[in-house]
Every structure is written in C-alpha cells, then in structure tokens.
Amino acid sequence: MPEAEQPQGPHVPVLLAEVLAAVSPGPHVRILDGTFGAGGYSRAFLEAGAHVIALDRDPSVLPHVEALVGDFPDRFIFVPGTFSALDVLAQPHAPIDAVVLDIGVSSMQLDEADRGFSFMREGPLDMRMSREGPSAADLVNQLDAEPLANLLYAYGEERKSRRIAQFIVAARADAPIETTVQLARIIEKAIGRKPGDAHPATRSFQALRIAVNAEFDQLVEGLFAAERLLDEGGRLAVVSFHSLEDRIVKRFFDPAKGGPAQSRHLPQAEIRPLPWTSVAKAVKAGPEELARNPRSRSAVLRCGTRSDAPARPLTYEGLGVPRIGSAA
C-alpha cells in the first residue's frame, strides 16, 4: 500500500480476529509465531492462554521480546533466527499445534528512518531486516542498468523499470546514492508523479527490499518448513501484503492452481494425497478494520490444516515465484 497511508506509531497486527479464529489459541495450545515483529500476534495468543515460541531475525525486536518475557515468563520463548528454518528452530519445543507467518515489512520498521525501508523518511538506503549482508545501497550503486531493471520489474512489477534504472545509473555517476530520499527523488524524476497516485517509488522500494532480504526464498522455505514441522491437524496461517506473495501462498496450499492443465486424452498423472486440508478461502479486512488500520487494506490471510500425507520435498515449481529475467 502507499506509504503515505501507513499509520504512525506501534505496529498494529492486521486481521487479528481472523488469525485468532484460524489457530484457536487456548490453554495447552503451542503456537509458533514465525514473524514476531512487535509481538502483536504473540501477545494475543498468550492472552488467550496459549504457549508461544516466537522467531525473528531483526535484532531491534528485543525490547518487545523482553516485555512478553516479563509478562508471560512461563509460556513465552523467543528464538532468534529466520522463519525459513522454523522447523529446525522450533523442534526442541515441539510438538507445535499452529504456525503463524505475517509476511513483509512491519509498520515498526517503516517508522524507523535509520532502517531505510521508507521513502517517506530520510535515512540510509539500507533495508536489511537482519542488518547483515548487502544493503539496498549496494544494489543501487553496483548493479548495471540491465540487471537493475530486471530486478525492479520481477520483484516490484515496475513497468517503467528500464527508465528508472537508466536514471539511477546516470545519477550515481556523479555521486553514490546513499539515502532513501535521494533514490525516491531520482525515481520521481524518471517517471513523474500524477496527483492522487501512489508515490512513484513504491514498486521500486518493494523490489529492492525483497531482493535485499531474499523474501521470496524465505517465504517458500518457511512454508515447506511448516509443512515438515506440523503433525496431522496442525494449522498454518499466513498473512501476505501483495499479490506476488499471495500467489505463492495460494499455490503452496493448492498445487493444482499453479500446475498445467492436463489433457483428458493423455494418461492421467498419479493423484497424490494433499498435505493440506480444509484450506480456507482468502480472507481480507472488513470495513471496521480498514477504517482504524489502513495497513490492512492489502492484507490477505490464507490458512490450512495439515493432513496425514507426507511432507513434500521443497520445490519452487508451480508456485509462481518471480525470477529475475528481462525487464519489459
């Protein structure tokens, strides 16, 4: 969603009532919160009586962790790490009854100018959730025009990616691009801005953030890790915030959505038991939540229940994961 519409202040967990209904927290229920953030979901699960194991790779979440450790010392455990490895990280605390993933950047991260996620705030062009590895500034200043354009197109669906990349390369020839506002102004100069439209840098910033944090790889690996971790009857709830993520989650739960149509004239492929049952229809925020929390506008919740079928080997096939090829 356009950053100008993002709420200020602490992160507000979206679709909270719907997530609670999906995972049914209560006494003796063990929930893995794979994307802890500011702890909104974890606190709600704990207040409902559940035991919570929380993961996050962002060291800035520690004050929120300490608050929940103080309030729920016997039922809350925090494990630093990425949700792509959630099965390994959570195994010492198994069995787990439900896994919850809230994908993407939080309002808390957007509000911290020094993290570099937001083009609405002056800050270093960083975007690293773990504060490790190459930053957005490294990509912007080091990639040649063609691979940069391909990245913006594949991960941000930016149709004017070639022009933006050309303007970036021209600008950095004079001086490195080091801040969020610098980059946002270059993009606005490249493609202009119409009154009432989202900021022209929206898609490019999304693409850079996804690339810096390997978000699509993290998502795919996390989904299959949850499939390995959960026993029959376990529940997985995933909240995503843009169409590229939602497509991956949708096809993960229902592989037939991403597979090629099978001709009735050919021998029929073997039908394998599906690892997920009771896959609910996508849920979006209602009018009341939209009014009090604009961030929920783009949120989509999908959830399913683990069957007794064996976990599948990790594969990207059929998931519609964007790959960097050539820009339009």
TrEMBL record:
<keyword id="KW-0489">Methyltransferase</keyword>
<comment type="function">
    <text>Specifically methylates the N4 position of cytidine in position 1402 (C1402) of 16S rRNA.</text>
</comment>
<protein>
    <recommendedName>
        <fullName>Ribosomal RNA small subunit methyltransferase H</fullName>
        <ecNumber>2.1.1.199</ecNumber>
    </recommendedName>
</protein>
<feature type="binding site">
    <location>
        <position position="109"/>
    </location>
    <ligand>
        <name>S-adenosyl-L-methionine</name>
    </ligand>
</feature>
<keyword id="KW-0808">Transferase</keyword>
<dbReference type="GO" id="GO:0070475">
    <property type="term" value="P:rRNA base methylation"/>
</dbReference>
<dbReference type="InterPro" id="IPR029063">
    <property type="entry name" value="SAM-dependent_MTases_sf"/>
</dbReference>
<feature type="binding site">
    <location>
        <position position="102"/>
    </location>
    <ligand>
        <name>S-adenosyl-L-methionine</name>
    </ligand>
</feature>
<feature type="binding site">
    <location>
        <position position="83"/>
    </location>
    <ligand>
        <name>S-adenosyl-L-methionine</name>
    </ligand>
</feature>
<keyword id="KW-0949">S-adenosyl-L-methionine</keyword>
<dbReference type="InterPro" id="IPR002903">
    <property type="entry name" value="RsmH"/>
</dbReference>
<keyword id="KW-0963">Cytoplasm</keyword>
<feature type="binding site">
    <location>
        <position position="56"/>
    </location>
    <ligand>
        <name>S-adenosyl-L-methionine</name>
    </ligand>
</feature>
<dbReference type="GO" id="GO:0005737">
    <property type="term" value="C:cytoplasm"/>
</dbReference>
<keyword id="KW-0698">rRNA processing</keyword>
<dbReference type="GO" id="GO:0071424">
    <property type="term" value="F:rRNA (cytosine-N4-)-methyltransferase activity"/>
</dbReference>
<feature type="binding site">
    <location>
        <begin position="39"/>
        <end position="41"/>
    </location>
    <ligand>
        <name>S-adenosyl-L-methionine</name>
    </ligand>
</feature>
<comment type="similarity">
    <text>Belongs to the methyltransferase superfamily. RsmH family.</text>
</comment>
<dbReference type="InterPro" id="IPR023397">
    <property type="entry name" value="SAM-dep_MeTrfase_MraW_recog"/>
</dbReference>
<dbReference type="Pfam" id="PF01795">
    <property type="entry name" value="Methyltransf_5"/>
</dbReference>
